[in-house]
Design a protein that fits this description.
Elements lengths: L13 H12 L9 H14 L3 H15 L1
Length: 67
Amino acid sequence: MDKKYVERPKVFNKKEYDKEYKKQNYKQFTVAIAPELKERIDNYCKQAGISKYEFLKQAIDMFENKN
C-alpha cells in the first residue's frame, strides 16, 4: 500500500463549523434606513454599550410589552 494515498482523519475547521452553525441557527435581516436614523441608532448603541442585535431585541421587547 502506498503511504501517499492513506486517508487521513479530518481536522476540525472552526471557520467552517461557525459558518454552518450560523446558517442553521440565524437568519439575515437587512433594512435600508435614513442616515440620520442610523446615526441615532449607532450613537445609542455606543452610549449604552450594546450591539445592534441587542438594540433590536430590546426594541422589539419594549414594543411587544407596550401593546
